[in-house]
TrEMBL record:
This is DNA replication and repair protein RecF. The gene is recF. Belongs to the RecF family. The RecF protein is involved in DNA metabolism; it is required for DNA replication and normal SOS inducibility. RecF binds preferentially to single-stranded, linear DNA. It also seems to bind ATP. Residues 3-351 form the RecF/RecN/SMC N-terminal domain. Keywords: ATP-binding, Cytoplasm, DNA damage, DNA repair, DNA replication, DNA-binding, Nucleotide-binding, SOS response. PROSITE patterns: RECF_1 (PS00617), RECF_2 (PS00618).
Length: 363
């Protein structure tokens, strides 16, 4: 899979931009605040209909305009797929092959991406929400049913929390009905996640063992707020946990257990990765990203597009080499950087763009 062409209209500091890319490595070079990350973000947005930098779509619209549109021409296997997203004050329109998509899950997964940005280096020590977001984005691209189950779960969760906040006298029968629905969708969400983490660990460990010169293995543990006991299925365990947590939930007026509270833990040679060195953290995160690429290829049949947002300077020559070895001639890659000086062993065949004040020049 690779993106041949991208068109932006009123996106951030790009009033109008039409640009063509190479199927291999594309490098955007420019000083800070010139628009190189905006360009990378637009590719991410075209894939996932969301930004990795802001929750508000309004932030994406050029400050002098009221709408924004993005279009791309995607190569998949033996076909070309046009993609379009239009944002106005009336809402969002997404199109695949010029056909409007009724549901988000019908659009997401058409073009898959793996993003490696500086904030990913906080994945190990950062908040649990970062790790849940990591799962949701990657799993959502390769399993549309996961997105559907997660959306349904979040809808019931919102209903339950709203009810708890709106009344001082809880109807336990009504709450039990909500609990059953929450357990239905929540157990499915957790089952998807548990399988994904199992598959991710297998792939990530291969890469990490290689990067560490065969000295280290990694393990990923899914930390569920639902206590699983032998002989009890996941859904029943969720129902049981909700019952145990009921008085707490009524008092605090929110839901204390479920996938929205779950987390991940990383281990290097069975040591908690929180206590590992900065270099080990970089190797672990790099291994996860390389594993994501392989899992998407295994699941969809196409390699995803790789977005490297100003992270190559964070990797030493050894880690850069391992990354480039794994993607060369297989994965279309976009790199943002302030300088080419710290990039080692780039292939000769790259497409290089200079960006200044929203003006893109191919070199």
């Amino acid at each position: 899979m690779w993106l041949e062409r991208l068109s932006l209209h009123h996106y951030r500091n790009y009033k109008n931009l039409d640009i063509e890319f190479a199927p291999g490595i594309n490098v955007f070079v420019g000083q800070n605040a010139q628009g190189k990350t905006n360009l990378l973000e637009s590719i991410y947005f075209l894939s996932l209909t969301r930004s990795h930098r802001t929750r508000s779509d309004k932030d994406l619209i050029n400050f002098t305009e009221k709408d924004v549109s993005l279009s791309g021409l995607l190569h998949k296997s033996n076909s070309k797929v046009p993609l379009d997203i239009i944002l106005t004050d009336k809402g969002r329109v997404t199109k695949v092959n010029h056909l409007k998509q009724a549901k988000l899950s019908d659009y997401i997964g058409t073009m898959t991406v793996v993003l490696f940005a500086p904030e990913d280096l906080q994945l190990i020590k950062g908040s649990p929400s970062l790790r849940r977001k990591f799962i949701d984005i990657d799993l959502g691209q390769i399993k549309t049913l996961y997105l559907s189950d997660l959306s349904s779960y979040n809808h019931v969760l919102k209903q339950r929390n709203s009810y708890l906040k709106s009344t001082d006298k809880v109807d336990t029968i009504f709450l039990s009905v909500l609990d059953e629905q929450l357990a239905d969708f929540g157990s499915r969400v957790m089952e998807h996640r548990l399988q994904f983490i199992k598959d991710l660990q297998i792939e990530a460990d291969k890469h990490h063992h290689n990067i560490s010169n065969k000295l280290e293995h990694i393990r990923i543990e899914y930390l569920s707020s639902v206590k699983l006991t032998e002989g009890v299925n996941l859904r029943q365990a969720f129902v049981n946990q909700l019952e145990k947590s009921r008085q707490r939930d009524i008092f605090k007026k929110n839901t204390g257990v479920g996938p929205h509270r779950d987390d991940l833990a990383f281990f290097i040679n069975d040591m908690d990765a929180n206590f590992a060195s900065q270099g080990q953290h970089r190797s672990l995160i790099l291994s996860l990203k390389m594993a994501e690429i392989e899992l998407i290829k295994q699941t969809t049949g196409d390699y995803p597009i790789l977005l490297l947002d100003d992270v190559m300077s964070e990797l030493d020559n050894h880690r850069q080499t391992k990354l480039l070895e794994s993607i060369t001639d297989k994965v279309q890659t976009f790199i943002t950087t302030t300088s080419l000086d710290h990039l080692s062993k780039l292939p000769n065949e790259i497409k290089h763009f200079s960006i200044e004040a929203g003006v893109v020049i191919e070199n």
